[in-house]
Write a structure and sequence with these properties.
The chain is α+β, with helices and mostly antiparallel strands. It is built from 17 helices and 17 strands. The strands form six sheets. A four-stranded antiparallel sheet has the order 1-5-9-8, with no helix packed on it. It has a three-stranded antiparallel sheet with strand order 2-3-11, with no helix packed on it. The chain has a three-stranded antiparallel sheet with strand order 12-13-14, covered by helices on one side. The structure holds S-adenosylmethionine. GO terms for molecular function: protein-lysine N-methyltransferase activity.
């Protein structure tokens, strides 16, 4: 549906019509305009200074009335007077009570209402028009299979796979929950008249993910016009976004910033985000990025661990670990790994307990004491064998990191097929090299952590370790 709407023009507005929409709905621009930046048209539209601006003494650059914010709160308000919206949000149950569920459903209904064939569905509101200004982003969920293959060995590959699976589940929830609603059956699901496909769900997901910002006071939401600002990290960030005391949205020039006429007013989408997350959520990587910054690698409990099923059952942590930059070196963190490295001989035990309603429940014990797995690390830190556990964890991580390096190396040097588009090709290449470099630094850092633990606790082991690692 959305793809067709873009092609036929009923779901597309040229960006130069935005000022008219904005003025009509009370959005104020103060010394800025929205459009492509000459020389950077591939970045879509952005916020551009209409005159020289100096931070500290200018009014908000953009003012957005609170009613226009696409937030869960406002969607609930719209649903009070739009019974079609209310019907579908209620039909999807718990998912409709999440911000993500409410926003994606809302966007889908607005797109449906834009289609000239749709009759008597939904109540037109300013945002029905606004979504026509939003471009389709080439996020990795839209990369072809051969483009996604370029990601083998990067942390983006499993992330995109998991995302597609969860999008499929959400789409299926949506379909099952709304199939018996007459107008949904007719305009969305009917074999002849239905317009929705999984592609539509991917598109509303991409709109939300690439544009949602966390606003103090309003939570995650899409803020029309402020969401036209492109990203620049660090000192290059020109503006901040926030809400005023009445909940209206504001874009404010940073103190001390001076932007010449024609210059870009950027915001930050989060300077701490790693290269993988930037490509995943926004489909680009700034030229200035020189490090993968943060990586999440999955970790499995070995098949030959007799406690594996019980460990999997009780674990609440994400099964993996995060490596990240810290003070010029690489550090790691994981709540999961501690469960992987301990076993029965160390003091771990599981018992099956009968609950009062007759159900059976697995309980974990550490040295005979009931164990809260969320506090496992704390329990282990107090154990005389803490050094051993640390050592096991670090060696395990080191092996996992080396395995990832190997996968990256053997899949290196893929030939570029003519069907592979420029953006996925360049992004995959950059991500591969940034992640490889970070993994290599991690091996060195882990090696020195192992040496420290060994030399401190097991001076005799140190020699053996050094020999084993050459
Ligand atoms: C919140 S939107 C910003 C407005 C968007 N450019 C538009 O045309 O609607 C985020 C998207 O803008 C683009 N973008 C933002 N900052 C960028 C940058 N520094 N370099 C390249 N593309 C950027 C990406 O496509 C990203 O997914």
């Amino acid at each position: 549906m959305i793809r067709r709407g873009r092609a036929e023009g009923w779901l597309k507005h040229p960006i130069d019509v935005l000022p008219t929409w904005a003025a009509f709905h009370g959005v104020e621009f103060n010394g800025v305009k929205i459009g492509p930046l000459p020389g950077y048209e591939d970045r879509g539209s952005t916020v551009i200074a209409d005159r020289t601006l100096a931070g500290g003494n200018v009014e908000p650059l953009i003012f957005v009335p609170k009613d226009l914010i696409i937030s869960r709160h406002n969607i609930d308000l719209v649903a009070k007077s739009d019974h079609h919206l209310r019907e579908i949000i209620e039909a999807i149950g718990d998912f409709g009570r999440t911000t993500r569920g409410a926003v994606l459903t809302f966007l889908l209904l607005q797109a449906t209402m834009c289609c000239p064939e749709t009759k008597h569905v939904g109540v037109l509101n300013p945002l029905t028009e606004y979504i026509r200004f939003l471009p389709d982003e080439l996020l990795p969920t839209f990369w072809t299979e051969e483009e996604k293959e370029l990601l083998i060995g990067t942390t983006l590959k499993p992330a995109v796979g998991a995302k597609l699976n969860s999008l499929l589940r959400e789409f299926e929830t949506m379909r099952t929950a709304t199939a018996s609603i007459d107008w949904c059956a007719k305009y969305w699901w009917d074999e002849d008249t239905g317009m929705l496909t999984f592609d539509d769900w991917m598109r509303v997901d991409a709109m939300y993910r690439s544009r949602a910002l966390e606003f103090p006071g309003a939570g995650d939401c899409m803020m029309p016009c402020v969401d036209m600002a492109n990203h620049a990290a660090g000192d290059a960030t020109a503006a901040l976004y926030e809400t005023d005391q009445d909940g209206n949205g504001l874009l404010l020039l940073r103190d001390g910033k001076k932007i010449d006429q024609g210059g870009e007013i950027t915001i930050t989408y989060g300077d701490d985000k790693g290269a993988c997350e930037n490509i995943f959520s926004y489909g680009f990587l700034e030229d200035a990025v020189t490090s993968a910054k943060v990586m999440f690698l999955d970790l499995d409990i070995p098949d030959d661990d007799p406690l594996r099923p019980a460990k999997i059952h009780i674990s609440t942590a994400a099964p993996g670990f995060r490596i990240f930059e810290k003070d010029d070196t690489i550090d790691w963190e994981s709540d999961f790994i501690w469960l992987v490295v301990i076993n029965e001989e160390d003091g771990l035990d599981f018992k099956v307990r009968q609950t009062i309603d007759g159900k059976r429940e697995i309980q974990a014990f550490w040295n005979e004491q009931e164990l809260d797995t969320a506090k496992l690390r704390e329990s282990l830190e107090g154990d005389p064998a803490w050094d051993v556990f640390q050592l096991r964890a670090t060696v395990l991580l080191q092996n996992r990191v080396e395995m990832q390096i190997e996968t990256l190396r053997v899949t290196q040097g893929a030939k570029r097929e003519a069907t592979i588009r420029d953006v996925p090709w360049r992004l995959a290449e950059r991500l591969r090299s940034l992640e490889l470099e970070m993994l290599e630094r991690a091996v060195t850092a882990f090696d020195s952590q192992v040496r420290t633990v060994v030399s401190f606790s097991y001076p005799t082991l140190q020699e053996a370790h050094c020999q084993s690692r050459g």
